[in-house]
Amino acid sequence: MQHKGEGQKVMDVSMESLKVMVIDDSKTIRRTAETLLKKAGCTVVTATDGFDALAKIADTRPDIIFVDIMMPRLDGYQTCALIKNNSDFKRTPVIMLSSKDGLFDKAKGRIVGSDQYLTKPFSKSELLGAIEAHVKQAEAS
Fold first, then answer.
1. Per-residue pLDDT at 39 exceeds 80
2. What is the value of pTM for the model shown?
3. What is the H or E stretch that residue 17 is in?
4. Contact between 106 and 136 (Cβ < 8 Å)
5. For residue 44, what are the β-bridge partners?
6. Residue range 15-140 in CATH 3.40.50.2300
7. How confident is the model at residue 138 (pLDDT cuts 50, 70, 90)?
8. What is the arithmetic mean of pLDDT over 20-31?
């Protein structure tokens, strides 16, 4: 393990056992997120859309979910609402991903229960920062 100060060490340890789901119809976004997350030590499960994700969530039980808003069949808002309405997964943090940085989109994300909103393209620090903020919050409560 690298020793870059206490903050970095804690983050490395906390990422090791985390299971992260990335739901996006873009292969590029899925691959980018998967590469960044695996380098941080996370186990990554990907899904191409909301239906694909809902079928995998019960089996994989992710610690945190990143979901794209604009997807065919079942969009990110609908997917988030379905996750948050399930008693087994309502406490699982859901981070919305969007190429738009609109106030309306962020508000709509909050209404369906999302925990945060990231604008694409996201950086490694934004992705890992969201995980650290929400998973640590969940562990503390």
1. yes
2. 0.87
3. none
4. no
5. 20
6. yes
7. low
8. 96
What would you report as the CA-atom Rg of the chain, rounded to the nearest whole angstrom? 14
Q: Domain spans of the chain?
A: 15-140
Q: Report the alpha-carbon distance of residue 129 to residue 126 in Å, rounded.
A: 5
Tracing tokens 């992710």 back to the chain, one arrives at 62
Helix locations, 47-115, DSSP H: 50-60, 76-84, 103-111
> Which pLDDT band, with edges at 50, 70 and 90, does 17 fall under?
confident
Type of residue numbered 49: D
Within 8 A by CB and 6+ apart from 72, the residues are: 25, 49
Buried-state track 5-19, b at ≥16 Cβ within 10 A, e below 16 = eeeeeebeebbeebe
Helix (H) or strand (E) holding 117: strand 116-119
**End-to-end alpha-carbon separation of the chain, Å?**
28
Backbone angles phi, psi at 44, to 5 degrees: -120, 135
